[in-house]
Model the fold of this input.
Amino acid sequence: MKNLGNTIIIGIDHGYGNIKTANCCFGTGIIASDKEPVFKENLLVWNDKYYLIGEGHKEFSADKMLDEDYYVLTLAAIARELNICKIYSADVFIAAGLPLTWVSEQKDDFKNYLLQNDIVDYTFRGKDYHIHILDVDVYPQGFAAIINNLGDFTGVNMLCDIGNGTMNVMYVNDKKPDPRRCYTEKFGTHQCMLQIRENLMRIYHTEPPETTVTRVLRFGTADIDEAYLKTITDTAREYVGGIFLRLREHGYDPKLMKLYIVGGGGCLIRNFGSFDGSRVTIIDDICATAKGYERMLEMKLLRNGGKL
Done:
């Protein structure tokens, strides 16, 4: 969250697995109901409906505007950022993003989707919010995560943003992104999770909780049977091998360029990949993209006198 005069800039990274802001990260799972639920820890009330936020995650879809879920998740993200500073009424600019190769096609529709209400009154976690959404700007995912460190990107660099649903690849040459060499593939970490489930079911006829598998992927181990752990880690190594295969198909050569990994998939590269640490940089900050969105919108507003 950034303050610009009497307005607030909030960057939101609308992932398939998690929503990220500059200071928060929560699951995209959402359960809607016409009646007030029993458990209310992450309850959002808007438009006479009740939404439990953050339980699990949404399924992959190339169109995030098919339903109202990402709009409601946006309201929750705004509330979580504002609550940090105990602000409950604000004029807000939203800085958001889309996969690299989808921006030009979906940017206007996604902007209108997030602007469907200029004034929004709702309740989240028992606090009432009155939000005036002034405008929305949409940026390419991945690149935003490095905007504050662009000075380091001399020579030829490949940027790989591995999210839950997609993997985005971009070349950044001498501090400038190359729009001719941007790629988006449906090869996010959820594909690894699906393969792990399939292998465990096929070999052991069991399916452990997703939280257990996630712990192995994040930290490389968990307190489970060694045979199960081996199957999970072997599958994760195969998935990471698939990432590097796809990078090579897009021209990756570690002898000619440096590789930067952003997004939640970075922990899989670190735990299960084989690479030269002097040529590969993993950016661990899961909120880096949201922070980059804020910085890019802030610079744009300063150039334009506070207007988009």
Q: What stands out?
A: DSSP finds seven helices and 16 strands in the chain. The helical segments are 69-84, 103-114, 189-204, 210-219, 226-249, 266-272, 288-303. The longest strand covers residues 127-140. The first helix runs from residue 69 to 84.
